[in-house]
């Protein structure tokens, strides 16, 4: 039997779907975004190269950097296990799910951890 796609309710937390998510460099906070963040996000969005991307703020360089890339075969449990318990992170997760009409869908989720 194939991989079971979770339902949005399986996450046990509110889910916010981004219809057209794209990172903006030098947002209002003044924090820079490393070019690799934008490149990896576009690869996830267009080619589904990754299941998730975890971003970390580098205090010394004052910019957001890619910390971890999740392979497409990894699941939500692997993603959740990759998040540190006591530190902040930003993440993008490519969430596959089944609708109430039994249609397989995929949405990109932005997570502030």
Low-confidence stretches: 17-26
Q: Taking strands numbered 1, 2, ... along the chain, how are they ordered across the largest sheet?
A: 1-6-5-3-4-2
Query: CATH superfamily assignment of the domain at 1-12 and 52-113?
Result: Severin
Taking all residues together, what is the mean pLDDT? 83
The counted number of beta strands is 6
CATH architecture of the domain at 1-12 and 52-113: 3-Layer(aba) Sandwich
Whole-angstrom Rg: 15 Å
**SSE string, helix = H, strand = E?**
EEHEEHEE
Which CATH class of the domain at 1-12 and 52-113 is shown?
Alpha Beta
Write a concise synopsis of the structure shown.
This protein is α+β, with helices and mostly antiparallel strands and about 110 residues long. Helix content is about 20%, strand content about 35%.
What can you see in these coordinates?
By secondary structure, this protein is an alpha+beta fold. The chain has a domain at 1-12 and 52-113: Severin. 18% of the residues lie in helices and 33% in strands. The chain has 2 helices and 6 strands. The chain has a 6-stranded mixed β-sheet. Strand 3 (52-58) and strand 4 form a beta hairpin. The longest helix has 13 residues, at 35-47. It is globular, with a radius of gyration of 15 Å. Mean pLDDT is 83; it is low at 17-26.
